[in-house]
Amino acid sequence: MPAQDRQVEVIYHFARLQLPRVCLGREAFRQHLQRMYQLAVSKTPHLDKKTYYERLYAVDALLASACLEREESAWEYLFAARAGQGDQLLLDALRKRASRLFPRDEERQEAAIADFWSHLLVPETPGSVPILARYDALRPLVPWLIRSFQNWHISRLRSPQERVENLPDDDLLPLPAQAHHTSDPSDTWREVFREAAFSWLESLSEEELLLLGLRWRFRLSQREVAQLVGVHEGTISRKLAQLRDRCLDYLERRLEQAGWAGEDLTDLLYHEMGPVLLEAPRCSLQAMAHLLASRGLSAPQESAIP
Q: 130, 149, 162, 187: which has the highest count of C-beta atoms within 10 A?
């Protein structure tokens, strides 16, 4: 038996030991694993199979594959899955995100969850891919589903059909009215997160740094940022969304390398991102004023940051 086939056998049997009630066959799992590998290669072209097998989350790969095959036992495992350091159920974590996306609208919150859940297996439009079929098993499944839920609905809110006048402000650092943190991260993870956040800030271009400073240090709304720099609000929203996604991907990778189990980063973001932005030299008032002056703009008055 070739070495890679033996590797798949080991992955399959290891995952089955963790999910004993899931009865997905080896051949079906192998086909799904090949599909997930192709997804991963589309994002990282030089990723070889050996490296992919070493990095993948085997149990989550089996669970996602079995759910796609509509195995009832797999869905029972998924419904019982827990997320975050607060040990909340996946559905409760989705409700928390829905309440931030659609505040004070319980009916729309529940509809958002039901709509997302229904499209895990059924494509949203003809020819598209179901949400769960986009999972490549290179990160934990539950946090990936939570991120997918948020990104999916934000994309829909930004579509012309929704006719949203004010685009939702999707923060790296939750504002006090939005934050519902459940636990205080340990000192070890605080330090790892802060080191990763400082490193990420050093990688930003001046334009990205300016947008970050205006939005999160000066607490300007997306509309106010757009008016200050003289561009459309939709442009600012798109750039901030790209900045947010890159930040979360970078922080997740760094924390996972340090042994993070893949929980939601909300608590760490709430506790640590604010102080990082205040302490980072590139985000200081002097640095922001210099960036604004180089573009012929005046610095707004800094708002109090909790």
A: 149
